[in-house]
């Protein structure tokens, strides 16, 4: 037996290491058990509600049989699409500004601090804020208000992702661009941003995945609509609020539709995560 193993200090550290690893494995196992439990429950109950009518029929009235989620699916796509359209340019441009001037500008440092706070802000607080600033003033719920609330959640994610990605660009690449006489704005947009475009797109996709299942902000802004509507200036149906409303009912038909809607949202978020990680991994392996 070697002298290293017999050393009491080494053996004490070895046991601490083993205990730490054992506790980590136990914690991971507990997390995986609950995750698999949730997924199994979602799949077993969600698949029972899947049908062609789910995508071709609108949400049924109270006590009605049949029906689907067509109006909620279309409404969710419109609200999330507009929120993405609002948050993407704002988040990317703000991220570029922070990466370029974050270390030498007080305003940029304050912006980064506020962005970090907004990242952890409860979504219901942002929903109440938009309700106060938009819904209460306009005197009606609307899809526009829902998109604004969701964009307030997505913007910090895009900003921080863009900022972090741009900081990974090697300084030698930037110095080479400056040595050629390129102005700072051109180096930032055509050299620095282009070098990390897959990471920036990944951040946008993660932001979309983040807001797709948000319910609380939409309860105060877009609310819900029993009928099909593409008018973003009026209450509009959406999957998160439909799940919240139907899951709390006593109707078996509504509860089945709620599980099917939850399954659709889960698959949508899963697909976005797979696409974003695939894009990022392909870029980093080159």
UniProtKB/TrEMBL annotation:
<dbReference type="InterPro" id="IPR051408">
    <property type="entry name" value="Phosphate_transprt_permease"/>
</dbReference>
<dbReference type="GO" id="GO:0035435">
    <property type="term" value="P:phosphate ion transmembrane transport"/>
</dbReference>
<comment type="similarity">
    <text>Belongs to the binding-protein-dependent transport system permease family. CysTW subfamily.</text>
</comment>
<feature type="transmembrane region" description="Helical">
    <location>
        <begin position="21"/>
        <end position="43"/>
    </location>
</feature>
<dbReference type="Pfam" id="PF00528">
    <property type="entry name" value="BPD_transp_1"/>
</dbReference>
<feature type="domain" description="ABC transmembrane type-1">
    <location>
        <begin position="73"/>
        <end position="276"/>
    </location>
</feature>
<feature type="transmembrane region" description="Helical">
    <location>
        <begin position="110"/>
        <end position="135"/>
    </location>
</feature>
<protein>
    <recommendedName>
        <fullName>Phosphate transport system permease protein PstA</fullName>
    </recommendedName>
</protein>
<dbReference type="GO" id="GO:0005315">
    <property type="term" value="F:phosphate transmembrane transporter activity"/>
</dbReference>
<keyword id="KW-1003">Cell membrane</keyword>
<dbReference type="GO" id="GO:0005886">
    <property type="term" value="C:plasma membrane"/>
</dbReference>
<keyword id="KW-1133">Transmembrane helix</keyword>
<feature type="transmembrane region" description="Helical">
    <location>
        <begin position="254"/>
        <end position="276"/>
    </location>
</feature>
<feature type="transmembrane region" description="Helical">
    <location>
        <begin position="141"/>
        <end position="159"/>
    </location>
</feature>
<keyword id="KW-0812">Transmembrane</keyword>
<dbReference type="InterPro" id="IPR035906">
    <property type="entry name" value="MetI-like_sf"/>
</dbReference>
<keyword id="KW-0592">Phosphate transport</keyword>
<feature type="transmembrane region" description="Helical">
    <location>
        <begin position="200"/>
        <end position="223"/>
    </location>
</feature>
<dbReference type="InterPro" id="IPR000515">
    <property type="entry name" value="MetI-like"/>
</dbReference>
<dbReference type="InterPro" id="IPR005672">
    <property type="entry name" value="Phosphate_PstA"/>
</dbReference>
<feature type="transmembrane region" description="Helical">
    <location>
        <begin position="72"/>
        <end position="98"/>
    </location>
</feature>
<keyword id="KW-0813">Transport</keyword>
<keyword id="KW-0472">Membrane</keyword>
């Amino acid at each position: 037996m070697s002298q290293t193993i017999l050393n009491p200090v080494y053996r004490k550290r070895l046991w601490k290491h083993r205990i730490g690893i054992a506790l980590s494995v136990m914690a991971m196992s507990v997390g995986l058990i609950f995750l698999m439990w949730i997924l199994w429950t979602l799949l077993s109950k969600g698949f029972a509600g899947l049908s062609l009518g789910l995508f071709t029929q609108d949400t049924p009235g109270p006590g009605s049989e049949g029906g689907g989620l067509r109006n909620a699916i279309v409404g969710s796509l419109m609200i999330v699409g507009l929120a993405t359209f609002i948050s993407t340019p704002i988040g990317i441009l703000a991220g570029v500004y922070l990466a370029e001037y974050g270390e030498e500008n007080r305003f940029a440092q304050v912006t980064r601090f506020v962005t970090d706070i907004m990242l952890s802000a409860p979504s219901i607080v942002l929903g109440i804020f938009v309700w106060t600033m938009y819904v209460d003033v306009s005197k009606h719920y609307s899809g526009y208000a829902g998109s604004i609330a969701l964009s307030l959640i997505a913007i910090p994610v895009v900003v921080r992702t863009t900022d972090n990605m741009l900081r990974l660009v090697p300084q030698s690449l930037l110095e080479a661009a400056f040595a050629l006489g390129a102005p700072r704005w051109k180096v930032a947009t055509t050299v620095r941003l282009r070098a990390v475009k897959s990471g920036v797109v990944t951040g946008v996709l993660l932001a979309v995945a983040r807001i797709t299942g948000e319910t609380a902000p939409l309860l105060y802004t877009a609310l819900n609509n029993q009928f099909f509507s593409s008018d973003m200036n009026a209450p509009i149906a959406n999957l998160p609020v439909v799940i919240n409303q139907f899951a709390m009912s006593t109707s078996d038909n509504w509860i089945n539709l709620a599980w099917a809607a939850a399954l659709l949202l889960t698959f949508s978020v899963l697909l976005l995560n797979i696409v974003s990680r695939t894009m990022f991994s392909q870029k980093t392996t080159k």
